[in-house]
Amino acid sequence: MTEALAVRPEPGQCGGMTSDKLPGGTFRIADLEFTRVGYGAMQLAGPGVFGPPKDRDEAIAVLRAAVELGIRHIDTSDYYGPRVTNELIREALSPYPDDLHIVTKVGARRDETGGWPPARSPAELRSQVHDNLGRLGVDALDVVNLRVGGFDAPEPGSIAEQFEALAELQQQGLIRHLGVSTVTAGQLAEAQSIAPVVTVQNLYNLARRADDDLIDLTAKQGIAFVPYFPLGGFSRLQSDSLEAVAKRLDATPMSVALAWLLQRSPNMLLIPGTSSVAHLRENVAGAGLELPADAITELNAIAG
Questions:
Q1: What is the pLDDT of residue 9?
Q2: Which residue of 48, 51, 103, 162 is 20 to 30 Å from 241, comparing CA positions?
Q3: Domain 24-300 classified CATH 3.20.20.100?
C-alpha cells in the first residue's frame, strides 16, 4: 500500500509510510523484509494476557497506527487471550498489506485460570498452526516460532519431535519460515539439522544478557534475534543506573533500553508491546535514540 501517513485507513485497509522512516531500517529474513522495529501484540489482550481488551477501539487503533508508522513486523500468538490478539489483528488490518509480515508462535495453551501450560505434542502443534491460520485469515503463516522453554529461560532436552512436526507443515505450504523461542544454542543447532531457522526469540535485555554469545552466533548466520521483556528482570540498582543514563540523555528508561537493544547487533529486531497509540509512538521514537559511546559503555556495565 502507498497511502500517505496522514491518511487514516478505513476499517480493513492499511496505509503506511516507507520502512526507512523507522529506526534501524530493515532486516531480511529469507525472502521477507522485516522492519527492525516491530510491534508485539500481546498486551492487546486483557489483564494477564487473558480475555478481551479493556478498550477494543483503542486496540484496533494501535494496530492501524503501527502500520501507518511503517511497521511491517507484528508478533502475535493464538494463545494470547486466547484468540484475542489474532482476531483483533484480522479485524484491524485485513486485507493485509503485501509487505506486512505476521509472526506467531506455538507450544502453549491457556487454561481456565489464565495459566500457560505447555502444549507441544505434534498433534497440539498442528492444531495451533491451523488455529492461527484460521483466526488471522491467511493461507500460510509467514513465520512460526516453536516456543519450547520455560517462562523466561530455556529448558534442557531435545526439540526434534516438535520441530519436525512444524517442518512437515512447512513442506505442506502452511508455514513459510520457522523459528524457535526460549532455546539454547544446542537446541537451535538441533532445529537447524531438521529445517532452516530464521528467527530466535529469547529473553534478553540490558540486565539479562546470558544470550550474548547466541546473538553473535545468529548474527553471523543471518538469523534474526528477537528479544522479549526489554525491561524485565532488573534489580533496583540496575534500574537506578538505567534511569541515571536516561536522565542525562533527557530520555525515558524505556527509550534508552530499546535504543541499546537496536544498536547491540544488526540482526536484533524489537517487538515492544503496548495497548496505547501514544505509547506506541513513544516506543518507535525512543528506539531511534542515538546513544553516545560513553552511555553505551555505562549501559554495558549494567548486566548482572
A1: 33
A2: 48
A3: yes
